[in-house]
């Protein structure tokens, strides 16, 4: 079976990207420090609430609810139709 020109280009691009990733050396750094104090923010809809309900102590979950209605059991921050933008990094002020 012959590949189309687009399929061949995609295959080559994928191979090039994989080779580039394989050559990267990643080492741990102590630059970013983060202390969660056991708090976990789960972002999503009703499925996020189900997931957050399974998080057990010593972790404490809170849901940033983007869609759906609040379920009892997990603290929820409702977005109320507003767009949410999360940026920054762990340890960032």
Question: Could you give the topology of this structure?
Answer:
Blueprint: H1 5-22, E1 39-44, H2 46-53, E2 60-65, E3 76-78
Parallel strand pairs: 1-2, 2-3
If you had to describe this structure to a student in words, what would you say it looks like?
- With 93 residues, the chain is of the alpha/beta class.
- Helix content is 28%, strand content 16%.
- The protein contains two helices and three strands.
- The chain has helices at 5-22, 46-53, and strands at 39-44, 60-65, 76-78.
- A three-stranded parallel β-sheet has the order 1-2-3, with helices on one face.
- It is extended, with a radius of gyration of 21 Å.
- The relative contact order is 0.14.
Outline of this structure?
It contains two helices and three strands.
On the 0 to 100 scale, the average pLDDT is: 78
What proportion of the residues form beta strands (DSSP E)? 15-25%
- Please trace the helix and strand order, writing H or E for each element: HEHEE
Numbering strands along the chain, what is their spatial order in the largest sheet? 1-2-3
What class, by secondary structure content?
alpha/beta
Distance between the termini: 55 Å
Helix content: 25-40%
> How would you name the oligomeric state of the polypeptide chains in this document?
single chain
Compute the number of strand runs.
3
Radius of gyration: 21 Å
pLDDT < 50 stretches: none
Secondary structure tally, helices:
2
Q: Main β-sheet, in a few words?
A: 3 strands, parallel
Q: What spatial form do the alpha-carbon principal axes imply?
A: extended
């Amino acid at each position: 079976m012959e590949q189309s020109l687009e399929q061949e280009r995609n295959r080559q691009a994928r191979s090039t990207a994989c080779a580039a990733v394989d050559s990267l050396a990643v080492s741990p750094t102590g630059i970013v420090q983060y202390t969660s104090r056991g708090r976990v923010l789960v972002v999503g809809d009703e499925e996020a609430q189900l997931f957050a309900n399974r998080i057990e102590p010593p972790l404490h979950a809170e849901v940033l609810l983007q869609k759906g209605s609040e379920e009892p059991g997990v603290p929820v921050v409702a977005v109320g139709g507003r767009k949410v933008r999360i940026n920054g990094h762990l340890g960032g002020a």
